């Protein structure tokens, strides 16, 4: 989850426009800089911009900020390989549980004030309706204070473990999500050995629970692309060396792991290796104009499928499995159609897509536009019936 800056529209340029998926910018680029109708010139890095389906905005990545503060309205209250075969069923449908990572920048922070843990009764309500995967966000700075090679802080670990076990004991999968954007105390993690050691320690705690999934890190962004590859590989190596061999590992990419920019940014991640062959490429996709997931307005009723189809092809061409680890739309008919299109597409391509997780549930989201917290979250009340049809 992130915010992005929007540079104003390119509409009105007189020259011919670049076609779908064509290059439209980058250092030294002298060709067309506008896109045909329905496509957006989207910057992937200083050297390459591409025409991607969507309206006329330029997207530039900026600092993640969405969960740095909690909403005030309710503050303080509170085995087998993934499904194969096109047209099959999604293996996973669930939500992110977001609250233990709140209070970003305030470490360790105060339990009940800066951060909290998911509400188990709300989680069980979702499980009883069929949701079978929960991505539990947490802050690395609280789990390993001060230095990345430190031992795990026992009280935060105990609370996190209680949350995870309540999910997996009920038969669902629990994703451990260090919600850190490839950073630790705000600095890009460059010490891959320390990162491997962190994952080795964490995986050791959960190595006998096959319903746990390890998510290397939330939304790497504005980082060296080889470093993103190396951090993901270090995590995999640390996890497997711990003896955690039965679990899936979700890897994430640069540029906030966006599905819509994946094929321009993250193709080097195809080189990741896992002796257990249980890597799943986690991508995020929002449907608002800048793809940031900060607006209840979706670009169009078809934007869901448009923004993921290139990633679908990449997964299949590279014989990989993927998951949409974050998606959402506002509570309105255009978004509902776009979300339906997205999920229909994932289901129709379930040889490569394993599932999807809504952003987000948690006890502190209040009246947030996407809140999936039962019983009255805006997203939950509007989308629960629809999402249940994909289980
Ligand atoms: C863990 O949860 C308990 C309540 O069950 C709370 O009192 C404590 O402060 C929490 N500690 C941390 C570090 O999360």
Automatic annotation (TrEMBL):
GO terms for molecular function: cellulase activity; cellulose binding. GO terms for cellular component: extracellular region. Pfam families: CBM_1 (PF00734), Cellulase (PF00150). Keywords: Glycosidase, Hydrolase, Signal. InterPro entries: CBD, CBD_sf, GH, Glyco_hydro_5. It catalyses: Endohydrolysis of (1->4)-beta-D-glucosidic linkages in cellulose, lichenin and cereal beta-D-glucans. GO terms for biological process: glucan catabolic process. Gene3D superfamilies: Glycosidases (3.20.20.80). Residues 16-52 form the CBM1 domain. Its EC number is 3.2.1.4. Residues 1-16 form the signal peptide. Belongs to the glycosyl hydrolase 5 (cellulase A) family. This is cellulase. It comes from Coniochaeta pulveracea.
